[in-house]
């Protein structure tokens, strides 16, 4: 789980998040229900072309028995048993049995290929959905109770159905092609007669699909709505009982249950009509062949062996294919399309690219709010339609931890005014930099850019001589720490919380934790809670300041060499803030402080002032003379204290 800095993958591309309550509208863009799924599925499968190509090749091998079955059965009858040569007939059937060995080998080789597609696909979806949900929540959006349904039921549904469809779609395609192709070789007359009802069945199925998609989507939305309504009610049972609101709560849940049940029945009714497709495309041709067999044989148009061979193609090839079309594509395929379409409304996952050079491209993250907790980049959080490649691995090691920013720009949408524009900045290794400016000027956004949790729309960032996007993900998350305003403490022991980012050696971790506790001034808190072995069962029971002390100590104990404090001391009193910042300044490495109080700037070796139009750097004294914005912030701080308003130590520098 995320620590004081967020361990989430870098952004790529993200669709607009869905609202908490399910919408009855179709996917963005006005397409049919589930239309977004057809855009999302190729993005998930595209980076896995090699195992898909291998699966397709083995599918061709698997189709050999289906292609030859009717021809070999016809030869066994006409050239063997009916010709008085049972040995030849058995030889032809033995050849058919031999071809089954090819199918067995192909099926055995197929499953590793499918596993190489399905399991990474599920991981991509989980990572993207978790990141998108955390991003939205940290950005100030209303919590989405339906996110739990997406993460548990819908993602697992996609994984299971993609696996099932990849297995079954091969049977559908290869059986249909083999049956019709074999019929065409065996008897063009029969093949032409069979093609007419098959085409009619496919046309009926095509007309039926929009109805199935719409009703499946209605069922998924009803499931999400039921989750969204029931979750707060179940969480607030005490309040409901205390307020005497049992009837209202029951009515709210019952109405959602009724809608969900009605959607289930509607989908079941539409599913009954799928039987017509099987009857028209498989049963009718076979029945017609059997009825016409005697006249065709007597007229010399077909031999008995050809009739039996054609029946074999229809019974063992065409009939299973039509059943797969109806039972798999018409059921699982509809569910997969709608579920992927629903997930695509929340987040779009880009294709993973193999290691190699990648240039940064525009990103569209969730708008920034106060602090940076959890506003981690979503895999795929970029400009819609422009996928971003994953972080390439670099063969070059970091040469220190110097940060170099050149022409850095960032906007939250392609037509929006940039929050950061043309910023040039160098932060030397071991430097102490404070960032100040009016509220909403982009300071927290800058912290996300510097730590790789957002992609710039222009310019570049280098860490230790390497482009930030070329630093391997695990290395970047080891050497950089972002401590956001909203402190994260998880259920567990206090020691587990503090040592979460420490090296794996228990002895080293214990020493680093104890040093960190003393350095940031958390010793009294640790003793009050009962020591490092004390259990934290309800993190919310701790005050905001106590949670911040824990996350500060956690970051201090980490191996990070570049620490960014994004208003990470805003809930501490000035004396506690002074002690914590002084500890980080004395700690080995670079410190960047997004200032909550102007006193943080006074303590820094250098200050970056952001005012939306330009950015200036310098010492505290230099900026008092050069920057009206900085002088105004300092003057406002002093004036409020002198005027008997809030204490000067309590006046913020703007967020």
Considering the chains and any ligands shown, give keywords for the structure.
single chain; 655 residues; alpha/beta; ABC transporter transmembrane region fold; Rossmann fold; 2 domains; six-stranded mixed sheet; four-stranded antiparallel sheet; 20 helices; 12 strands; elongated; disordered N terminus; disordered C terminus; ATPase-coupled lipid transmembrane transporter activity; transmembrane; ATP-binding; ABC1_TM_dom; nucleotide-binding
How does this model look, in words?
Residues 403-637 form the ABC transporter domain. Its main location: membrane. It comes from Planomonospora venezuelensis. Residues 352-365 have a biased composition (Pro residues). Residues 9-26, 375-387 have a biased composition (Low complexity). The chain is an alpha/beta fold. The protein folds into 2 domains: 35-344, ABC transporter transmembrane region fold, CATH 1.20.1560.10; 403-650, 3-Layer(aba) Sandwich (Rossmann fold). It is built from 20 helices and 12 strands. The chain has helices at residues 35-45, 49-62, 64-81, 86-138, 147-186, 188-235, 237-243, 246-272, 274-298, 304-344, 443-450, 473-479, 494-498, 506-520, 523-529, 544-557, 574-586, 598-603, 620-626, 628-642, and strands at 403-410, 420-427, 432-436, 458-463, 466-467, 480-483, 492-493, 535-536, 562-566, 590-594, 606-610, 615-618. The protein has a 6-stranded mixed sheet, with helices on both faces. Strands 2-1-4-5 form a 4-stranded antiparallel sheet, with helices on one face. Strands 7-8 form a two-stranded antiparallel sheet. Helix 3 (64-81) runs antiparallel to helix 10, helix 6 packs antiparallel against helix 8 (246-272) and helix 19 packs across helix 20 (628-642). The radius of gyration is 33 Å and the shape is elongated. The relative contact order is 0.12.
